[in-house]
Design goal:
This protein is 37% helix and 22% strand. The chain is an alpha/beta fold and 702 residues long. The protein has 2 domains: 344 residues, FAD/NAD(P)-binding domain (3-Layer(bba) Sandwich); 291 residues, Aldolase class I (TIM Barrel), CATH 3.20.20.70. Strand 5 and strand 6 form a beta hairpin. Helix 11 runs antiparallel to helix 12. The longest helix is centred in the middle third of the chain and has 31 residues. The chain starts with a strand and ends in a 5-residue tail after the last strand.
Length: 702
């Protein structure tokens, strides 16, 4: 098989040597536009996990890389005059020039031909006679640009400016330094990559960069600015730039979030079909704060070689499809982590009110790939120190306690820990009346160790039920039924019990859960209402648009349920304003198409939910907490966004809400959530810090 690799960076070189190793008969040639020793980077960082993959793929190049690596384990956070250090993370750095030399030598040793200073303008000319073209020509890939109609590239730009510099100060940890200025916050990412040199990246939001005048500075002025800013970290060492091809403000980059709809495209050359496959930054990017593009490109090369080994040259199409499918899965996981990480750094000001201990902890866990117990495995001493600090803040004695198991105080209610049993629809009530099933269900949950147990959404009226089996608090007999359950929880457990109240709105009059998710009843339907005549689905009823009289009646129903909840002895009350039910349907522009004062702008759409919550707060005892559950993201273009959710939470806070219970989606059948571990917690994190209100997080939490 004859293979042409366009791009002689680490990805292209590693692909070349692996394909020669796979079959020495393969004719592999690499075309690179620069000289062998040209590079515009500084150092490359690889994790211990990535090193293991390199060792398995090609031991010889791995051994050479390993000998040239500079290893370290620690992360150090400099913030507000304090330094917090965490160990056991396992990093290895290498100069990009050294890595390129090792890969060039290994590829040549295996018989790959390397052609330097050759600009590839037209891939067709190289593809003549080839069986496969590997495009590893970087984020500015001319190959991808030439066939953009086939690859379908899409680019979003990060909101920060950053500059890639170097210094002769040898750091002994992956160092993050945060510096306030009159214009805003600046961040430095620094790490060693050989015995005497370190990479030093300076990053700040675009608006801060402009206010500081960096858009008008030349290269020397920018370097001097950064040296002054981080003098306490550089300890007298100078900063260096090796991007001579860029001058002044052009050295300050914005991160391109690149993705392609397809990674493989067929060329038709001389009557033959020659596939072109993208690799590394030519196909995708992830933010530098979670890993290098070099790492991804080399792992792509491993994936391609493995796919070819499995399927053989005779089924090249199957091999390329398998390569793309398998690497996309890994890319999605890493990209999710990278987006969380980038969001943290782009919004550092969100966290600067925290004490250094907690600020550093949020940095370490920002990507959602590293959790508390994993931190403990890496550095037990650091975690114990953090646990002691956090426990003292919560009024405990000086002993290490995981934050999850520290108490939480809200108004007059003190929870023994921060574990909450979320509302679960049981569809087992009789005309809203709960019975023995609910006593056992909620009683068992309360005995299980959680500090707070929530009821399922309890409907404030008969027509406000989701299904005939939903719980209610709209008849006097409901009070005694709920009081029985509350009494059991209080007498036999140390948990608190909360009531979630709501109205189904457009999603009402549907079957119980196991007979069809929000499918309409086969018979016995009752009419439904909502902000507008927008049905949950084409099969569901078209809701009647609510009148002012309807609104007044619903407010009274919520107030009645609130007063009865207090009579039952509930410790906590939550109003359901999420998941497309009545109040949520007012908030989302997808379901609220009113043209009066209750539709249009977010402020108008919030008008009725705020009326309800304000009335509930007035009726609910002052010493007891009130929370609201919201959908922080509709996951549909034109719907509620996380930006909107911040404003929604702020408005609820202003009318007396103590905590926002942050969920997402379920407001429309067209939602396409980006599911994943803890996929909704970033919304809760943002609301907590930007609004200054307590939050609960839910969804894929393990």
């Amino acid at each position: 098989m004859r293979v042409v690799c366009v791009g002689g960076g680490p990805g292209g070189l590693y692909a070349a040597l692996l394909l020669k190793k796979l079959d020495p008969r393969n004719d592999v040639v690499v075309y690179e536009r620069n000289r062998p020793d040209d590079t515009f980077g500084w150092g490359v960082v690889l994790s211990d996990t990535t090193l293991g993959s390199l060792a398995a793929a090609d031991r010889e190049s791995y051994d050479a890389i390993q000998r040239a690596f500079y290893h370290w384990d620690d992360i150090e956070v400099h913030f507000r005059g304090r330094v917090v250090r965490s160990g056991g993370h396992g990093f290895a750095g290498i100069a990009r020039t050294t890595l390129l030399r090792i890969l060039q030598e290994r590829a040549a040793e295996l018989g790959a031909r390397l052609v330097f200073q050759r600009e590839v303008e037209e891939v067709e000319a190289l593809a003549s006679g080839a069986d496969l073209v590997v495009a590893a020509d970087g984020v500015n890939s001319r190959t991808r640009q030439r066939y953009a109609h086939a690859f379908g590239p899409e680019v979003d730009w990060g909101r920060c400016r950053y500059v890639w510099l170097g210094t002769r100060r040898r750091f002994d940890a992956f160092t993050f330094a945060f510096q306030p200025t009159e214009w805003g916050w600046f961040t430095a990412h620094a790490y060693p990559f050989d015995g005497g040199t370190s990479t030093f990246i300076v990053e700040t939001p675009e608006e801060v960069w402009r206010r500081a005048g960096l858009d008008r500075m030349d290269t020397d002025e920018s370097l001097a600015f950064c040296e002054r800013l981080f003098a306490h970290v550089l300890q007298g060492h100078r900063l260096m730039s090796n991007a001579a091809h860029l001058r002044g403000s052009a050295q300050w980059l914005r991160f391109p979030w690149l993705r392609c709809r397809r990674w493989v495209h067929d060329l038709h050359v001389d009557g033959r079909t020659v596939p072109v496959v993208l690799m590394g930054d030519a196909a995708h990017t992830v933010h530098f704060s979670v890993g290098s593009g070099t790492r991804l490109a080399m792992e792509d090369a491993i994936g391609l070689a493995k796919a070819l080994a499995r399927h053989g040259e005779t089924d090249l199409r199957a091999a390329l499809e398998a390569y793309e499918a398998e690497r996309r899965v890994e890319l999605l996981r890493l990209r999710h982590a990278a987006q969380n990480s980038a969001d943290w750094f782009e919004n550092v000001r969100r966290y600067v009110h925290l004490e250094p201990e907690q600020f550093a902890y949020t940095l370490l866990t920002r990507s959602q790939r590293l959790f508390h117990e994993e931190l403990r495995q890496r550095d037990p001493r650091y975690v114990e120190s953090f646990e002691r600090w956090f426990a003292r803040r919560c009024g405990l004695d000086d002993r290490p306690v995981p934050p999850m198991f520290t108490p939480f105080q809200l108004r007059g209610v003190r929870l023994k820990n921060r574990v909450v049993v979320s509302p679960m629809a049981m569809y087992s009530a009789e005309d809203g009346t709960v019975g023995d099933f609910h006593l056992v269900h909620l009683g068992a949950r309360a005995l299980g160790g959680a500090a707070l147990v929530f009821t399922e959404m309890t409907c404030v009226s008969r027509e406000g039920r989701i299904s005939p089996g939903c719980a209610g608090l709209y008849k006097p007999e409901h009070v005694d039924a709920w009081r029985r359950i509350v009494r059991f929880v209080h007498e036999h457990t140390d948990a608190r019990i909360g009531l979630q109240i709501g109205h189904s709105g457009p999603k009402g009059s549907t079957r119980v859960g196991w007979e069809g998710y929000h499918e309409p009843l086969e018979d016995g339907n009752w009419p439904v209402m909502g902000p507008s005549a927008v049905p949950w689905s084409p099969r569901n009823q078209v809701p009647r648009p609510m009148t002012r009289d309807d609104m007044d009646r619903v407010v009274e129903e919520f107030v009645r349920a609130t007063r009865w909840a207090a009579e039952c002895g509930f410790d906590w009350l939550e109003v359901h304003c999420a998941h497309g039910y009545l109040l949520s349907a007012f908030i989302s522009p997808l379901t609220n198409q009113r043209t009066d004062e209750y539709g249009g702008s977010l402020e108008n759409r919030m008008r009725f939910p705020l009326e309800v919550v304000r009335a509930v707060r007035t009726a609910w005892p002052d010493h007891l907490p009130l929370s609201v559950r919201i959908s922080a993201h509709d996951w549909v273009p034109g719907g509620i966004t996380p930006d909107d959710a911040v404003e929604v939470a702020r408005m609820f806070k202003e009318v007396g809400v103590d905590l926002i219970d942050v969920s997402s989606g379920q407001t429309t059948r067209h939602a396409q959530p980006a599911y994943g571990r803890l996929y909704q917690t970033p919304f809760a994190d943002r609301i907590r810090h930007e609004v200054g209100i307590a939050t609960m997080a839910v969804g894929s939490i393990y």
